[in-house]
Amino acid sequence: MVYLNGEFLSLSQARVSVLDRGFLFGDGVYEVIPVYGKKPFLLAEHLDRLDRSLAAIWLHNPLDRDAWHQMIESLIDQQPPGDWSIYLQVTRGCDDHRDHAFPSEVHPTVFAMASPLKPPPAEWLENGVSTLTQRDPRWGRCDIKAITLLPNSLSRQQAKTAGAVEMIYLRDGVLTEGAASNIFVIRNGEVLTTPADERILHGITRQLVLHLARQADLPVREIDIPEATLRSADELWMTSSTRAVIPITRLDGAAVGHGQPGPMYRRMVTLWEEALARWRSGATIMA
Ligand code: PDD
Description:
Blueprint (H helix, E strand, L loop, with lengths): L1 E3 L2 E3 L11 H5 L2 E9 L2 E2 L2 H14 L8 H13 L6 E8 L17 E8 L5 H6 L1 E7 L14 H12 L4 E6 L2 E5 L3 E6 L2 E4 L10 H12 L4 E3 L4 H5 L3 E6 L3 E8 L2 E2 L7 H18 L7
Parallel strand pairs: 7-8, 7-14, 11-12
Antiparallel strand pairs: 1-2, 1-6, 3-4, 3-5, 5-6, 8-9, 10-11, 10-13, 13-14, 14-15
The chain binds N-(5'-phosphopyridoxyl)-D-alanine.
């Protein structure tokens, strides 16, 4: 069952108009929220980011917080037991013709679905993954979680074809992020990541990793990371809601550090697992 504009429907019944601006212009925003044991993880943070994305594209949020909560809860209740990822999408809806400028009356299209959340392969966690780099091909507002993902899709496909798991972007000689992840660089015991500005998506997993690192008194800096620093990292991690924290052990074919997940990664996994256990027992894990 999926949710579309106030109704729960089977996937084959859910239909949107070919004039939907999501379809014609990629005019919409989205969220991906992991669900562990029927409970959405960091839901408030995801819905806050959805608010920011909608405001940034001048679209009013069609549902209030209670309505989002009710809809998501009901969608989860309709799935078999297990871990899920909830996809939410809001587009600017339809006009009666195609025009770049907005329709005078806007009726957003709201869509949500649940997909099984598969844990990352054990091999990735044990040995790390391979990544490639390329010049960041995207626009200047990567902080908006927009559905227009053609550059990201092309990059991911290019990485996949070359047997890599992620494409890492560089803009003006500095690291931005991955095609669908944020990147952390560990160097000389410090945890470094790109500042949350318009060049990157302000990842919720990134936010939690920073929070856990600071709580554990690890040295953390949000700074521009030059290409040379990226290439001489002791460790690299990638973070996202669907994969949590994954160690990167190859960059453009070269080993990262010693070519194996490092001690700081193992430390973060422990912090993460402890936080998840606290969250499962009802505690708030991010202030
Ligand atoms: N993508 N950067 C980009 C470009 C992303 O697409 C994502 C996540 C992230 C990580 O953000 P978060 O920790 O909030 O998931 C960073 C999702 C998972 C996707 O598009 O499917």
